[in-house]
Protein 1
Amino acid sequence: MNATELRRRWWPRSVRARTALAVASATAVILVGIGWWVHHDVYRQSTQIAEEQAKSQLWSLCERLRQGVVPDSTTTVPYEVVATGRRTAVASGGALRDAYPGTHHVMPTPPTEGVAALIPLTSVRLPVNRDYNPKDIFGIAGGTQRVVTCDIEADELSRDKAAALGVAADARLRVYVVVLPHTAEAITKTTDRLLLGAGLVSVVLIAAVAYFAVRFALRPVEAIRVLTASVTASDPRERVTVPATGHEITALATTINTTLQRLDNAAAQQRRFVADAAHELRSPLTTLLASLEVALAYPERTDWPATATTAARQTRRLHALAEDLLLLARLDTRTPTAGPETVDLTALASRLTEQCPRSERPLTLTCDSTAPAYAHGNLDEYERLLRNLIDNAARHAAHRIQITIRNQDAWVVLTVHDDGPGVPTEDAERIFERFVRLDDARSRDHGGTGLGLAIARDLAHRHRGTLTLTPRTLGACFRLRLPRAPTPAEK
């Protein structure tokens, strides 16, 4: 079993469990940080309190010594008073007296000369007493202890007070008070236990709240999932209920409904396309089959050249329709892009003008352009686009077709205008749909598959342009707008 499989087995799959685990992990990290800060702050403040207690005890001892009174040895705060010229301690109390009974003294003797010292906080290493077995938490024999000290000069004591203390008249006394860390440590340990218990309970409660909150929040998503599971490609008419809360689930439901609507529209369009394609294919096939069956049934009375001409005409129609369908299929599957090639639309339009489409009536086809018009794209596709527009105009024009090309800022604008019957305003967009023919403007007998304008618009969109029908009082005017490419001299 590899690491990926182990991670997949260990890591929960549901969003609820993942969210709860993530929230619990984040909460644990935050609580650990807070606990670390509280631990150190409590220890610091407890230590400060112990130091203040030791300093208070120090000032009390110094005051009693200045009055010539030997301090009481029965105290909870360890202290020791040493003097110059004296081998034993003047006084000691607390854990120091218990840890070193019968010894001279354990604290350093003050120097005989120099300025009197007032050391608020320092460290002193105490000797080890192997015979000492402490009975309480204040066992301090051995190790380094933090102490506060203060010196008392001989001139601060009278002879009587010095004699009462058992020191020489010119002796210097130094008072040591040990700062007990045990209180601070005990308070910190108690606080740590409380924080640990509260932290564990908090992590569990927050994870549970997150789990059930996400479970409640995902109920609309589950309802959306159940409903969308019933949607099929052939019948995408189901719609999800949009919550009235206005949160992210509402946006999700709205987006899903919009997507389902697009699927429904696409499915309906595809059904119409298939039906129209089948109908368009059936017409020439029916004509071709009927002419061939009649010719085979009455071979001696058949005009075979006319039959062959009809068959060839219908075959060409089938071929053109198949080519248009294949082109539309390719355009539907490709991403719109202009391509790196540069095409001069003015030159292309001029060439197509010279190749005027054949018609039963005389037509005048002119091209009006003031300068070359360059656009990025494929020459064959641009030729197909313009030829479709010209063929469409030729089928409906009465006498004249006018092609106009202009460079307008960053765009190339090409128009194809005919003097035919025109297009009603309400059908200005409908004519670009596939297999659409207007009864008053088109006839199946005059050619056309109903795909020319649809292909032209798709090709325009593929080259990041637009193809629209511009309103005119006479005839139809198609306006092609494409991004302008720099001329070869500008490159």
Note: The two ends are 60 Å apart (CA to CA).
Protein 2
Amino acid sequence: MVVGELAHERDLIIIGGGPGGYNAAIRATQLGQSVTLIEKAELGGECLNKGCIPSKILTHAADKVASFRDFDDLGIESDGIRFNIEKLQAYKDKTMSQLREGVRSLCKANKVEIIKGSAFFLSEDRIGVENGEQYEVYRFKHAIIATGSTPKAPEGIEIDHKRILDSWSITEIKMVPEKLLIYGNDYIALEIAMAYNALGSQVVLIIEEDDFKFDSSINRELKRVLKKNQIQVIKGSIVTNAYVSEEEVTIHIVNKTGEEAITGTHLFVSSFYIPNTDSIGINRIGIKTCENGFILVNEECRTSCKHIFAIGDVTEGPNLAVKAIKQGKTAAEVIAGIPSETDLRFLPIVAHTRPPIASVGLTEAKAINLGHSVASAIFPLTSSGYASVLGKKDGLIKVIFDKDDHFLLGMHIFGFGAVELISSGVFSLEMAARDEDFSFPLYPHPSINEGIAEAVEAIKKQAIHLSPAMKKSLKI
């Protein structure tokens, strides 16, 4: 087909069927738009097929295995358990297949046209789509780029997806590594470390920084939990290269004390990501990118071509599905003429570790650096009656307020239920809540929720379940 001779007319074309793309598609049809969604691989994108869902199935299984160790205390007796990773892989594949079909059904029910193929811009209003021998051209009024990103290993490390693994292949292996070396300091590295530790791996975690990236109080408790679980942490170290032999991996690390070689059976690298833009022709139409190639967008998710939008991991910012979903809905609403924007200021960060970590807003150090007069307090879950009932006493809840105007600045939770509880912090920050807004409501009892109220009350030395001695030790 010669470009320009014939083109199929479309209102809105979306390139990429991940969480951002299909959420944008469905929201756009809800608002009366005619939508065509182009996906070259599987619906659901990296999140469903390679990232979020596979990794959370792994962490869920690991949590179940770890929880079994507490059964005897509850009078539930057994001769033991055996973990079968092949059955877990089958469960993972079945779950992913069901979720993909769910996405497809939702798109069909909302009259989203789905086209299989690789899309690329021919001009500012035309897209070419290839699928094997088939080639079609589409003219559009608006387009949304939702092509995501791809993990890339640091220099000196080559991912072979067998012994040296990245975030896409770590959940594909059909064995529990005997000794797993992990290089990275993000939530994925921590999830993998704790998951395989629970499944029986000896785990060594190597991080480039001198500490983790959470609030200092979370970091202290995290280090205690890692030590309790016999996960070795090597800080301030860079992995310069990795070598694979028949049955092991050897890495060389450099730190302040010199160089060291460490051997394990497998190496997991929590890589940085590069945007999937090379093959879609954005340079042809002049869409602006930042230095590392991610597409620049404004709060409406518009690119430098005003009728073309970009969302999710292909744009600057954290690679999180929650960002992609919000941006997808924003772009669809703006295209439909509805005022909308994406503000990532109160983006929650979560790690499905054991126990989970969830954070939103400013850390205490960041709040101080920004000039706030800070009032903060911690409620350790050892003081929670419900945490004791559940046998989930590791962790804490920390709140950070501005001492002068009493507005909430940040909430950080490390403990059972953290991922669900952090929504209280998100809502409170969005609504500019003060400390009194936490003290006035009634909290369900018994629950971990009560810990939020007690953390706020601890700022005023009013927490009921913190003894004076504990308040002093926590520097409240």
Note: The mean pLDDT is 94.
Protein 3
Amino acid sequence: MTDALTRLREMQSADLPVHGGRTLAYVYDSGLPDVDRIGREAVAAYAGSNGLDPTAFPSLLRMENEVVGTAADLLDAPETVVGTVTSGGTESVLLAVQTARDAQPGIERPRMVLPTTAHAAFHKAAHYFGVEPVLVPVGPDFRADPAAMAAAIDDRTVLVVASAPSYAHGVVDPVTAIAAAAAERGIRCHVDACIGGWVLPYAARLGRDVPAWTFAVEGVTSISVDLHKYAYAPKGTSVLLHRTPELRRPQFFASAAWPGYTMLNSTMQSTKSGGPLAGAWAVMRSLGDEGYERLARDVFEAVDRIRAGIGDMKELAVVSTPDSTLIALTTDESCDPFTVCDEMAARGWYVQPQMSYAGSPATIHLSVSAATLPHVAELLEALAEAVAAAVASGPVTVDPGVAAFIAVLDPLVLSDDDFHGLLLAAGLIGTDGEQGRGEQGQLALPQRMAEVNAMLDLASAGMREALLVAFLDRLTRPRRR
């Protein structure tokens, strides 16, 4: 047993750090060791508990109701509000879409109206539940266009979506106008606040200019907010809130059509560990309202200082003034964004590359946490060095042969042989055991990603999806004894 734990620690050493404020995507770090410890101990204490049956584990039911109640207070919810703890933002979004669809059984080919900046989880929901996404272009500030959203609503629309904020650019959509347009047609309006839900209310308290987006906005019928982001809870917990029990009811699933127990589920999961819920509850109780306000002050101070420092770098620009804790950066022609990301990684910082989309260039994404504040000066120094290195090395170019190969590939019929040929052409597999490449044709994670990202950036959205699916398929092959 000790050997297994030792091996776990050895393997984990190759992962991105989840503490220290240097990983600016995927994880959200309060910078408070005691909070982290409390969360981990609570997860461990409830790892064997099962949220499938609330009558068997009443402590889980109590914790869920208290977590939902705290979220309701934070989001200006009416007394009628109800909610459910889910496994994460994607499950909350899936349930919001499924509930809207099932509330309108008479609509055979339902639609939902989305700004093009809505999270990809809505596209996943569309794929799973057969709800057609109607994509509406956003304005030059990357916020949803309320008039265009209203014009896209028709008799088949079951849901209208806004973001608070959108992930890619960190801006809050004009929820008031969007919700009003939905309400006028008797249609649900969901606000995806998975990122901002636990930090924007404190931003408003601190006097920052935050557009209205909570249940205080008439016409908002549901909101999703993640606890494992800026509530700084362990992965993975989110809350889906509905304005009334009637709006939530289609979310539930029950089946007595078999000889076993009558299945009753409030989420996509049946069996679900009580650990994440207990971890979220314990962290929320430990931090309290004052603790979250302090953390919000820290994270927004970090955001402001980072933005000010970027203003001194002529090669970089902020895409749109962020309303929350997310910053998207563009580079000028002298500087390749994918190389900047690699150079940051070489200096111990993870920043996320975002591909070009609909005429907008590739960007660099930063999800800032409270733990980043003490290290802002180091971050800006590393960023300046990374930019200088990217300028010196020049833009990443894709081999013309590889580019031509991508251009003729059909994503609908991409074969394993096609993908293997592309890996060979791109130098991602080899036979010499060179570092960063697999041995004897095996695929390994590359040490630097700029060339790979530049190659993906050339591809259409459909081709990019097909290539990444094939890549994931290659990575996730069983290790046999």
Note: Residues 53 and 185 are 38 Å apart (CA to CA).
